[in-house]
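USER:
Working in pairs, take the chain set out below, taking as long as you need, and write a paragraph about the fold.
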Amino acid sequence: YQRRVHGDNVCSFPSSSPPCYHSTMEFAQLATKQVRSIGHPLSKFTLGVPFYGRHVRSAEPETYADLLRSIPDLPPNMDQAGNQYFNGADTIRRKVEFSIEQGLGGVMIWEVGQDVHPSDKMSLLRAIDSAVQKVFALPGDEL
């Protein structure tokens, strides 16, 4: 396995069957634990992070940018607004920190075009950058 596979993704997006609490931190931890339990090197895996949410009952997707347009004052620590479940900026930061702490190869974004512009303080890409800066104590080359 180690000689043949260059990398893979721990796609921590569970079934889209209702009720759909999409891509929770707990599911990311469970998926990582399962990969570790079968002996695959975690450094060859990335953790999938969604830049979209799902309706809890219908599982219909909605981009993070659209969610922010409909709820402009969305707090960064919120992962559910009404019937929409998503990963807010704080959860994305926690997932990045977790992936680094666990020795994963990084994170895989699905899909970066669904974010707001990185200059927006609510940008998920910006949240990833701030987590990396924090973990590695890098001087402020912020997005």
